[in-house]
Amino acid sequence: MSLAARTADLPPAGAAAPAAARRGEFEATLALRHGGTPRVRIAWELAGPEGAPVVLVAGGISAHRHASPSPDFPEPGWAGDLVRAGRTLDPAHVRVLGFDYVGADGRLDAPIDTTDQADAVALLLDALGIERLRAFVGYSYGALVGLQFAARHPLRVEALVAVSGAHRAHPYAAAWRALQRKAVALGQLQCADVQGLSLARQFAMLSYRTPEEFEERFDAPPQVANGRVRVAAEDYLDVAGARFVARTPVTAWLRLSESIDLHRVDPARVRVPTVVVAVEGDRLVPLSDSVALVEGLGAHGQLRVLRSPYGHDAFLKETDRIDAILAGVLRQHGESA
Amino acid sequence: MSLAARTADLPPAGAAAPAAARRGEFEATLALRHGGTPRVRIAWELAGPEGAPVVLVAGGISAHRHASPSPDFPEPGWAGDLVRAGRTLDPAHVRVLGFDYVGADGRLDAPIDTTDQADAVALLLDALGIERLRAFVGYSYGALVGLQFAARHPLRVEALVAVSGAHRAHPYAAAWRALQRKAVALGQLQCADVQGLSLARQFAMLSYRTPEEFEERFDAPPQVANGRVRVAAEDYLDVAGARFVARTPVTAWLRLSESIDLHRVDPARVRVPTVVVAVEGDRLVPLSDSVALVEGLGAHGQLRVLRSPYGHDAFLKETDRIDAILAGVLRQHGESA
């Protein structure tokens, strides 16, 4: 891995006001695990007061650098109920760092691994002059990247919180994602990329949520119209698909989806204190894999189990409970640091 | 519903030898629940000695009239390990009746309901001169048809065994099937019907099986070839898709898939003794729906729960346990008849 970063958009030292946020991006050369050393763009956002401990927050493959709104960047973030005043991740007291995953701009059409993302995070910390993260908080894909980061760059993070992500993709979840990629390929056969990606997203939605939630929301008989049957959840799924394709380049989605399935990390190589948060009822990351991960972490691992009707998406929904877990982790490592 | 049957292929009375099988088909006019009174083709197969009690066996939407091989029709059947010498459904002692679902030939392009299938069964019994079934054994879609048959034609069946099917489609399962139908529609957009149906079948396979089985069979790292990631289950799924499209008309599949989602029956209207067999881990028919069904059946219902790594497909895999349940039902109703 070679670093050739232009640290763009860094503010003058000491200029940031509390809760201010800044953004930037730079290019770097990244040696990919599956071959090639392309130039990649690393885009980041950092919110919070200069000198405060830094917590990196990384979400699912659709997440990005903008976790929460700030006066500088007022648009809603992807983790707005976890990163805000009153929460453990309050940008008045903690610096919250986010980044766009390598490949998320759709310009890198090659197999991307979680190791590549972890190395990109190290480059980002170099570029920002951050020696060590107080914590890496990763959800879903972010948990996979966090595990790789802890394994590859252990001196640069004090604690890891890995929510809804394990040391490998479960074979059933991998098959589920492979079929989503086939839906895109079916669309691409005939230049119907958007329809293919929309279907893939809708199929993914079923893996992110649970039967309990669908029963609660969509327990109505189907409609028969124009000779066709339409079930109660179809409007919801159609909207979810349309919203997704409007913001997602097909190549980015394909490569990041593959990246989840390429992910493998030996838990014994992770020697950073790690809290694994599993959600009972998660259809992508079964509790048994989280248990296996924690067993492999040995003395470094702790397991927390949540029950949630939101399944894999619990991180974005069960924010009070996640915040309580984060409070425990940050208090502990704040005191020992 | 009007009957206009030509009873074709019926052998001369008394001519059948033990374990002989015969087949036939006839046309009838069927008043469909969602409109229209088309002429439909009803194809059947009856194995076993003249005068023996008749058990109708109905499977999933891909099943057909040929449950098991016989000297007359030696090709493998869809339920060969449940209908054979040594089993409760031994064609030496029981007459086993199977039929092709209405719409299975792909010639009826209209919404088909489980009530339509139930009425077709009544027409079939009329045509064969069978007053009353000793039992209706239905699995998956067959369980739905059995429930409707018991509700609509209660005098024509002594006992029902409903495996992996309930009184309504679960909203999550309905959404899963709706996305399969969208895969077909995506293929049809561009005359890639076969690819669409193959993808739909592969989606469906994930709902028929369980993560436990996939972990057992496909726990290997993905391959990277030609710049693309291929997970361990993809070969298996591709083969399953290709086999399916080779034997399934697209229209038949679409209409029978819809039919599952149209299914609704009030359990209180089922007053035939019914054993509901639920499989813990079935991703299409959750245990909670089977429990609700049995509660609605009141004194007429009994619940049996199996745990199986095969999920919704347990009927075809846990044949020893299913056979033991059938033995109990047939013994009981054989004695009281």
Automatic annotation (TrEMBL), chains A, B:
Q: Does the keyword Nucleus apply?
A: no
* Broad enzyme group: transferase
Which Pfam families does its entry note?
Answer: Abhydrolase_1
EC number annotated for this UniProt entry: 2.3.1.46
Entry annotated with the keyword Phosphoprotein: no
Q: Which GO terms describe its molecular function?
A: homoserine O-acetyltransferase activity; homoserine O-succinyltransferase activity
Q: Which residues form the AB hydrolase-1 domain?
A: 80-318
In terms of superkingdom, the source organism counts as Bacteria
Q: Where is the active site?
A: 140, 282, 312
Single biological process term from Gene Ontology: homoserine metabolic process
Q: Which InterPro entries match?
A: AB_hydrolase_1, AB_hydrolase_fold, HAT_MetX-like
Q: Which UniProt keywords apply?
A: Acyltransferase, Transferase
- Classification via Gene3D superfamilies: alpha/beta hydrolase
SUPFAM superfamilies, per the entry? alpha/beta-Hydrolases
Extract the PANTHER family matched here. HOMOSERINE O-ACETYLTRANSFERASE
* Name under which the protein is recorded: Homoserine O-succinyltransferase
Q: Which organism is it from?
A: Luteimonas wenzhouensis
